[in-house]
Amino acid sequence: MACKDLVEALEAIDSALAEAVTSFDQVMAQPAS
User: pLDDT of 15-31, one tens digit each?
Assistant: First the structure.
C-alpha cells in the first residue's frame, strides 16, 4: 500500500474540511436579518 498517497489524500481532505468550516463560520457570523 502506498502510504505516501494515503497521507496526501488525508491532507487534502483535512484542507478541504478546514476551508468548509471557515466558510460556514463566515456565513453563520452574518446577521440573520
Answer: 999 999 999 999 999 87
